[in-house]
């Protein structure tokens, strides 16, 4: 049903409906007011000619010549078409109105008038019976035909413009999907690399905790490989993923590190793009943990109807920052690009950095 109303079938249906109205409603009034059959024939023949003008220009001349940069051939074709159909229209009027009372004996009346006998033509029974003057017919034909030509050109131009815009939107969407897939695929190896380093350092300290870490990592990787590959994911899944990641990182934390995590317990489980917040959390654990001095990480999220507010703050460790300057910020750069692609004009990202603290404030509006 959706494809029917978005394809050419709905266009054909609208054209047929327009012709039913054009041809059907006048027929009702002709019957109601007892208009002569001659004028009914003239009306339908005229509309047939108008239809030929419209669809010849709409379906053939405009696509083939006007859009094909052959304007001279187009104008010559239109002039030839209008001239030929005017001849057909004029001839059809003569044939249709030849039986109108008083027309077929005009020559006889003129001959009697020349002899001095004043003879008046018989009065038609119907005041609609008088055939139109040729000059008036020419004027009406030119006005109607030119209107149909310009109207059909305008319709075709608008349709082409609409198709071009639709194609452009599809190309932009494909480009967006490709860029998002590329950026997300960059995030996963980056995250996996850092997590494996953490587990490696944990093995020499506590074998039991390292086994738990591997189990948690398998859950995280299952989410990365399968659950996040379907475009969007539920907010609850993303929160579970972040909780699992934080629990995995807590296995190697010392008592000198202050960790505060606050995720909402009740919220609307909306669909969101996966892996939006984890790069901020990952960078916090990467650059905010110190085993020699006190450090902190604060992670919080609040939801309001169709918006999400996320905050991640951490202390900065100068020694680690200096040693890893060339590798830091890869995930952060990617998530910034993703936000610009996914939520243009619907998100606000603030990054506050001092000598001792790094803070990210992100608000996303989904409505």
Can you tag this structure with a few keywords?
367 residues; alpha+beta; Heat Shock Protein 90; 2 domains; two-stranded antiparallel ribbon; 11 helices; 7 strands; 62% helix; 12% strand; disordered N terminus
Task: Report what the structure shows.
The chain has 11 helices and 7 strands. The chain has 367 residues and is α+β, with helices and mostly antiparallel strands. The protein has 2 domains: 2-167, no CATH class; 205-365, 2-Layer Sandwich (Heat Shock Protein 90), CATH 3.30.565. A 5-stranded mixed β-sheet has the order 2-4-5-7-6, with helices on one face. The chain has a two-stranded antiparallel ribbon with strand order 1-3. A hairpin with a 2-residue loop joins strand 4 and strand 5. Helix 3 packs across helix 6. The longest helix is centred in the middle third of the chain and has 70 residues, at 134-203. It is rod-shaped.
Helices, strands, pairings?
Layout: H1 2-6, H2 8-32, H3 37-66, H4 71-96, H5 106-114, H6 134-203, H7 207-225, E1 233-234, H8 235-250, E2 257-262, E3 271-272, H9 278-287, E4 295-304, E5 307-315, H10 318-323, H11 330-342, E6 347-353, E7 357-365
Parallel strand pairs: 2-4
Antiparallel strand pairs: 1-3, 4-5, 5-7, 6-7
Helix pairs in contact: 3-4, 3-6, 4-6, 6-7, 6-11, 7-8
- State the end-to-end CA separation: 27 Å
Shape: rod-shaped
Kindly report the average pLDDT value: 77
Number of domains: 2
Percentage of residues in strands: 5-15%
Mind telling me the C-alpha Rg?
Answer: 39 Å
- The assigned structural class equals alpha+beta
User: Order of strands side by side in the largest beta sheet?
Assistant: 2-4-5-7-6
Number of strands: 7
Number of helices: 11
Give the ordered list of helices and strands. HHHHHHHEHEEHEEHHEE
